[in-house]
Amino acid sequence: MKKTSIFATDFDGTLLRDDGSFSAKDIAALETLRDRGCAVVLATGRSPFSLRRCLGERKLPVDWYVLSSGAGILNSDGEVTLSRTLSPNDTVVIHNAFLDLGITDTSIQGTFPDAHILHWMEGKRCSDFRKRLAYYRDFSVKIDTPEIPSTEVIGFVHPEQADCTISKLQKNIGKKYSIIRATSPIDHNTVWIEVFARGVNKASACDTIRKEFEIPLNFTAAVGNDWNDIQMLRWADRSFVSSNAPLELLREFENVPSNQHNAVATAAEIWLTVLS
């Protein structure tokens, strides 16, 4: 069936419930969208490995996977159709930019699709960073130099430091790289400042899919819940945020119930009404 519209949904905190389950109503809504000729895109900050580990044997009714916040795209068969990486020199520049701001807790992710491989150097190791190292202990590699190719470099900061740090990074390296804010899925408090190749975000990846299907921009919808969704939400013609989103996002975008109460199904029902 020819795809005539796009519906993009975030994963953690939007489609995925807090206990790791999915709402049957949300899944049925995605299936209905596909039946109506809508290309369903799952757009997440997770790497391919992280998503597979979370899903286990479960399958989602999804046509495309935008992963690592837009650094890579997989089709429904699991084939890589887009991969954006940082050169060894880029990785050094970004790592040093964090160091210049006093941020030593950094994680250098392997090249897509192996973005779950975590390279780290000595640092202060905040609690969230230590927990992430433990979670990926089988894929953590201590390195002496950041001069390696990567998908992204992540700096771990306290929420009170986030705005100032992002502002300084934008001033220092923002013209060359994409800087994305995300809330840690581990402690749900620490801010991860993720730096990618220029132009990488969920919006640009979704737009790549849109152009492939030759879908008009006004036939796009998106639903999310966190800062790393903001580019995608501003890209889509109709955007929704779940009620568990930060206040700033709730003020900017149309609100739907939380991930605990069928956020995706509610957004999908509204979008289907628009399409009809």
In which order are the strands of the major sheet placed?
Answer: 5-4-3-2-1-12-13-14
For the record, the CATH architecture of the largest domain stands as: 3-Layer(aba) Sandwich
The structural domain count equals 2
Helix/sheet category: alpha/beta
Helix content: 25-40%
Strand content: 15-25%
What does this entry look like structurally?
- This protein has 276 residues and is α/β, with parallel strands linked by helices.
- The chain folds into two domains: 5-83 and 201-275, Rossmann fold, CATH 3.40.50; 88-197, Hypothetical Protein, Haloacid Dehalogenase-like Hydrolase, Chain: A, domain 2 (2-Layer Sandwich).
- Helix content is 34%, strand content 24%.
- The protein has nine helices and 14 strands.
- Strands 5-4-3-2-1-12-13-14 form an eight-stranded mixed beta sheet, sandwiched between helices.
- Helix 1 packs parallel to helix 9 (263-275).
- The protein is globular, with a radius of gyration of 18 Å.
- The relative contact order is 0.18.
